[in-house]
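SEQUENCE-TO-STRUCTURE ENTRY
===========================

Backbone structure tokens: a row of integers, each naming the local backbone shape at its residue.

Task: work out the structure tokens from the sequence, keeping to the layout shown below.
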Amino acid sequence: MGMSSRYDYMDRVRFTAWCPFMGLLEDGCARVRCVLSSGGLSLSERWRGIGDGRRTGIAMVAMTDEVDSERLGRVMKALANPVRVDLLKALRSPKTITEIRLHPRRKDGNLHPERVMSRVTVREHLVQLLDIGVVQARRATREGRTVDVYIVNHRQLFALTEELRQLAELRPDGQTVGDATQEDPVEPPRFPEGPKLVLAGGIPKGRVFPLNGDGERWRIGRHRGAEVWLDYDPYLSSENAEVVRTRKGFVLHDLGRSRNGTYLNWEELARGAEAPLSDGDLIGVGRSVLVFRSR
């Protein structure tokens, strides 16, 4: 994709996309394509052997300017089940099949607290979530044995929300429907004094990263050691960029190793380049947006 088409794309989606979809993403040591099917296996076929260690990758959502209606419909159908939503919540920590305890729901939607769902039923729901990539399978050691454990894939969930966000660009032709203004239940954040980065686009919005103390560099990335740690964003590199304090003020420095680059006020920085930061500047990394505040 050339430079002109890159900026055309960014103009269309504004805050929702600071960079074009690169087709191939990097997630730790795994290189995955959208709906990866290594060895010629479909996702359903690859995950049919759940529990026997046959795992070849995870699905990733392709973020393009066109929504794949068929695939998105399949994803939404898989998630349109309260039991699977309960299962996602239960997998915030790694669990084996036998450690997953879910309660079936009555016809009125309430839980059956005295009943526990069978392992076979749990497995069926788990396969659906594995197929769309919102749950990952890993190897772990329990009581001296190597077993399969399952955990929620928060990066994939973030990618899905970004794709759903594109549906908000669908607007009726002609006059806008005059719905009543909805009350915003979210309280405005209160920011501490001093220089800081505020997460404006990401999870959770309003999170503050202070730029004070004895530090002179604050790395932005998915790596756990980054001072500005945005581990939810699969489009962000392990170490994407950094904010540096100099005698003249703060500057944004692209570390030159990112796949999707670093943006300052919608303009992409050259690889390894830096630019001065002013109050209110917008920093785009991956699919996340940070606001620089000087005080």
Observations:
- The two ends are 38 Å apart (CA to CA).
